[in-house]
Write a structure and sequence with these properties.
Blueprint (H helix, E strand, L loop, with lengths): L1 E7 L7 H9 L4 E8 L6 E10 L3 H8 L3 E2 L2 E2 L1 E4 L6
Antiparallel strand pairs: 1-3, 1-6, 2-3, 4-5
Length: 83
Amino acid sequence: MATTLYVGNLPWSATEDSLINAFGSHGQVISGRIITDKETGRSRGFGFVEVEDQDVDAMVSAMNGADMEGRQIVVNEAKPRQS
């Protein structure tokens, strides 16, 4: 099974590849996604990483507050979408 992690305070220059690479050293990353503005295409400063369930605690511990290009990122389990 997989769990989705919310990643906030991302640097504007972050890409999906850099997000996956940053988390990949702490466990199995299935996918990474950076949320962008629909009109400008610019990053909104947050994204999501889908990881294997067994790696969630290690990744949150290792990456929450970690430095990514000069910014301290915020990592926690994503909350389900509300309809």
